[in-house]
Design brief:
heterotrimer; A mainly alpha (about 325); B alpha/beta (about 350); C alpha/beta (about 350); A: about 325 residues; mainly alpha; MetI-like fold; C: about 350 residues; alpha/beta; Rossmann fold; 2 domains; eight-stranded mixed β-sheet; four-stranded antiparallel β-sheet
């Protein structure tokens, strides 16, 4: 009965690779990332909904009074106390030297600071990213011109450029954002160009060409989704940098003219050493908000890049 | 003949702690290697053939790695020991890609002098002389000029020869060759393999030759060990193994390889599926999900190693045995194996 | 070897693809030029597989890429179905693209990691508008994904990194097939795969070839693989074709000295030439300054004066489909060495 059946008489019919491709473990972003994101969501939420939140009017002067007995007349009068006032149940983070609520001013300041940070980096991504991608993808003269432009932008002293623009133009939210946006063009653009060069070499781009895709489609469908990853990581870092840069401009008295920003708040708070010594809450509330926000942005950016890097490697 | 073996590996394990669990890269492998012998270690990616060698050489510098079992090198226990004093001097290693193991910014000469001066305490002049001798022995033309070149100025074959020269500088007792010719062209591969054999005979070196290429293993080794999913499935003298293989995996591997002996468009016999996940390997025999002999027992029990004279295999239904033939017939009649592989009669035109 | 000539070309009406005098040069800096492919001619009949085999630096991949004009050759003609691709404008060429597709060596690099597998496969249909309507597109994509042995439902959810190397090659094949091409260029499609998986992909390619009536140009450094899949084989060395013809004939009866050395080096126990002790001496000459005459003469045991000055032209060997470019082809086992 031992039929000498050779294995080569038998064929496996189901030749497909039927092992379930489920073995790749999902990478985790980690608790730190989600803490950072929570903070960002929180601060953005506060900024967006500030007008409808039960916050004190940031511009109102909450002058506190005390009853004072006139030593001469003996009459008790209501007389104002010299602000700033220390944190209390009424003003959780105290008030500034004009008796305005620090918490509420910090939250309203976030509106400008975050918009500046976001707008600047959005401008940098849009202009720098597109220029960098197109230059990297097509190469040639355009690439040479764009690369030189980036080099010039990077070599030009950033602060001088910022001072130049802000002194010449009206210091509106738009100009400040544009100034910082121009500064973001070169770093973002160079990253986009470098990443594009790497991905343009990959064979899936060649495959897309053989399918008959036009260059614009290849840029949009094949390159952009890949370049977006390092770009978004940089964008988060860049947003942090822009927010800090706005602070630096404010320090020079070159930030937006109207409204409060974190930079302006800090500047007014540290204007006199006595204020800083006697009323540290005035400076440290906006500094704390700035610090936490920038750190959260940096941390989230780092984690995001690591997360996608690992994924790329594990393919 | 009565000389004690140079390397005795017993129940050796290498694991890596990963996020999803312990990856058992090498799972209880035993073998011995005598001086002057070549052991071929054959397997696909993930079979553990490379980790096995790097493991006992102490080359895996990862805090996630755990090793256990026993490896005696010349009678000395080396598992979980510091093995650095063995490197270069007593065991040397050559890798698949010489570019990654040569320092790209250091001249070739300096890279050869270094082990000579370190292990053999040579002075500059002696080291230079010996380096030229070594480069000549690996067939590098105008060796004196090569000393002042950088690795990128050499072709792939030349680089691998330089690697071999460096590896053999201190006349080690054992050489681990990890896919030494995989990245090279066939004509260069032949040259390198010929060279390795020659040098090995000259120095009486023991060698493990890690390869995925059955042709290379068959032509260049004394013994062959077949690994799969971290385990040893079969081990025999090279001629015995290829003449009378017992493990279905070995057989399947050979049947899936195209051969010059077959006419064009010969239907190949692929092994379905992919190599196993070593973090969560299949129960029982690790090859059972892809094996056309697989019976119920294979899916639950891990087959013990059967030892014949000069031939070991780990299978319940070995090829060439009555049990194997019956298992195959049973599966063919049922139209599928115990793990659900659908099988049928081969198409016409298959070899 | 490594000669020129077109004696081996068949009548234009018998072939689907005809490549004549193909030259591809790259600038190498300092005004130097890399002669990657020099005056190569071959043709492929409909439904045939032509294997291009040779070692690194022989120009086989460059040849294949020049055929599909990515990038276009420096000179020479590539006539596909009566149209010379080198004459077309960019847009005319783009219209022809669906006819010839390519499968690459690296299964990871050839798939976009950020897209879902089904989108990768249907990309071709989307580029060309999927004008047949949604149902046609859906059906076509699912059919192809199933034909290459993958699950269409899974392909909707997953990205390439969730698949094994062999499965990624299946995805590449599916993407290439979706536009119903005539010619597929396979550039080392199984070189990065394990042996057991390699056989799956080779069998699948053969099945797809039968099912969809494909013509293949198959590039590989692995002679056993090339022999298995090819009808005809061309052996290349340093940008030239040495020997071309029926695969079985060339592997059984190689007459070019280089082909013989190449074959003898294959570590295949069944290799009838394994016993030959000839080895390739010296290094591959630089393609920047290739040897005059026969390009192989610097490493050839049979080279004479004429080989150094005059380039051999392809001539018929015997009376079958077997052509060789050599002044002194090695006809039997007792060659007259110089």
């Amino acid at each position: 009965m031992t039929d000498t059946l050779k294995p080569t008489d038998v064929e496996i019919l189901d030749a497909s690779d039927q092992v379930p491709a489920d073995s790749i473990a999902k990478k985790k972003l980690g608790i730190g990332f989600w803490l950072a994101i929570s903070w960002l969501v929180f601060i953005v939420g506060l900024a967006v909904f500030a007008p409808v939140l039960p916050l004190k009017d940031p511009d109102q002067n909450f002058i506190q009074t005390e009853e004072k007995e006139n030593a001469i007349t003996g009459r008790v009068t209501e007389s104002p106390i010299q602000p700033p006032y220390a944190p209390s149940g009424d003003h959780l983070f105290g008030t500034d030297s004009d008796a305005r609520d620090v918490l509420s001013r910090t939250i309203y300041g976030a509106r400008v600071s975050l918009v500046v940070g976001f707008a600047a980096i959005a401008f940098g991504m849009l202009i720098g990213g597109s220029l960098g991608m197109i230059a990297g993808f097509f190469g040639g003269t355009f690439d040479k011109v764009v690369s030189f432009l980036f080099l010039v932008l990077l070599s030009f002293p950033a602060l001088v450029l910022a001072i130049l623009i802000t002194t010449l133009a009206e210091r509106s939210l738009f100009t400040i954002s544009l100034t910082l946006g121009i500064l973001a063009v070169a770093p973002v653009g160079r990253l986009a160009r470098a990443a594009t060069l790497v991905f343009a070499e990959r064979e899936f781009v060649a495959a897309s060409r053989t399918l008959g895709a036009k260059p614009s489609r290849i840029l949009r469908r094949e390159i952009l989704p890949n370049v977006m990853i390092p770009m978004s990581a940089l964008a988060l870092l860049g947003m942090g940098v822009s927010i800090v840069a706005e602070g630096a401009l404010a320090f020079l008295g070159l930030s937006v003219e109207k409204g409060s920003t974190w930079g302006k708040l800090i500047r007014t708070a540290v204007n006199s050493t006595s204020d800083l010594e006697n009323a540290p809450w005035m400076a440290f509330t906006p500094i704390g908000a700035l610090f936490l926000t920038v750190m959260a942005l940096n941390f989230a950016g780092d984690r995001l890049r690591d997360y996608f890097d690992v994924k790329e490697l594990s393919i | 003949m009565s000389e004690s073996p140079l390397l005795v590996v017993e129940d050796y394990h290498v694991g890596f702690r990963t996020e999803t669990g312990l990856a058992k890269a090498v799972d209880g492998v035993s073998f011995t290697l005598n001086r002057g012998q070549t052991l071929g270690i054959v397997g696909e990616s993930g079979s553990g053939k490379s980790v096995l060698n790097r493991g006992f050489m102490g080359l895996v510098s990862s805090s996630r790695m755990i090793e256990s079992g026993s490896v005696l090198f010349d009678g000395q226990q080396i598992v979980n020991q510091d093995r650095q004093d063995l490197w270069g001097k007593r065991i040397a290693m050559i890798f698949q890609d010489p570019m990654t193991s040569l320092n790209p910014v250091m001249k070739v000469g300096k890279q050869i002098f270094e082990p000579l001066r370190r292990h053999l305490n040579m002075d500059k002049g002696q080291a230079r002389e010996r380096a030229i001798e070594l480069l000549t022995s690996v067939g590098i033309p105008s060796p004196a000029q090569r000393l002042s070149q950088y690795p990128h100025e050499l072709s792939g074959g030349m680089r691998q020869r330089v690697m071999i020269a460096i590896a053999l500088a201190a006349e080690p007792e054992m050489l681990v060759a990890d896919e030494p010719t995989t990245a090279l062209d066939v004509t260069v591969q032949k040259y390198i393999l010929d060279l390795l054999r020659e040098l090995q005979q000259e120095h009486g070196m023991a060698m493990t030759l890690i390869t995925h290429d059955l042709g290379v293993a068959r032509g260049r080794t004394d013994e062959v060990m077949v690994m799969y999913g971290g385990r040893k499935l079969e081990h025999a003298a090279t001629e015995t193994l290829f003449a009378d293989m017992h493990h279905p995996y070995t057989e399947a591997l050979l049947a899936s390889t195209p051969s010059l002996a077959h006419p064009k468009h010969t239907r190949l016999f692929p092994i379905p599926g992919s190599p196993p996940d070593i973090v969560d390997p299949p129960p029982g025999c690790r090859f059972s999900p892809r094996c056309m002999y697989a019976q119920d027992r294979c899916t639950t029990d891990n087959p013990e190693t059967t030892s014949l004279t000069d031939h070991e295999y780990a299978c319940f239904y070995p090829v060439g045995s009555d049990a194997g033939a019956e298992a195959l017939k049973h599966n063919q009649d049922a139209g599928q194996t115990a793990t659900g592989l659908k099988i049928g009669r081969a198409k016409e035109g298959a070899h | 070897m490594a000669g020129s000539g077109k004696a081996h070309l068949r009548n234009a009406d018998e072939v689907l693809l005809r490549v004549e005098n193909l030259v591809k040069e790259f600038p190498a800096g300092g005004g130097k030029v890399v002669h990657a492919v020099s005056d190569v001619s071959f043709d492929v009949a409909e439904g045939e597989t032509l294997g291009l085999v040779g070692e690194s630096g022989c120009g086989k991949s460059t040849t294949a890429k020049a055929v599909i004009q990515l990038p276009p050759p420096t000179s020479g003609s590539v006539v596909f179905d009566g149209t010379d691709l080198t004459d077309l404008s960019a847009e005319e060429l783009r219209q022809q693209r669906p006819q010839f597709q390519m499968i690459f060596q690296d299964p990871i690099s050839s798939l976009n990691p950020r897209r879902r597998v089904r989108d990768i496969v249907s990309e071709g249909l989307e580029i060309w508008g999927g004008s047949g309507g949604g149902a046609f597109t859906e059906g076509r994509v699912d059919e192809i994904i199933e034909a290459v042995g993958l699950d269409p439902q899974e392909a909707r959810k997953r990205r390439p990194h969730e698949y094994s190397g062999g499965q990624c090659q299946r995805i590449s094949v599916a993407r290439a097939l979706v536009l119903d091409p005539k010619v597929i260029i396979c550039d080392e499609p199984v070189s990065a795969l394990d042996v057991s998986v390699q056989a799956q992909i080779l069998n699948m390619l053969e099945d797809m070839k039968d099912r969809y009536g494909l013509t293949l140009l198959f590039i590989s450094h692995d002679l056993s693989v090339v022999k298995n899949v090819s009808d005809r084989v061309a052996v290349m060395y340093l940008g030239k074709i040495c020997e071309i013809g029926d695969g079985d004939e060339i592997f059984k009866n190689p007459v070019h000295p280089y082909t013989r050395i190449l074959l003898s080096a294959v570590p295949d126990p069944a290799n009838p030439f394994a016993g030959e002790s000839e080895t390739l001496d010296g290094e591959l000459p630089s393609p920047i300054n290739p040897p005059a005459g026969c390009r192989f003469h610097t490493r050839c045991a049979y080279a004479q004066d004429i080989c150094r000055s005059e380039e051999p032209q392809t001539e018929q060997e015997g009376d079958g489909d077997h052509w060789v470019a050599c002044h002194f082809p090695v006809r039997n086992d007792a060659p007259a060495a110089d």
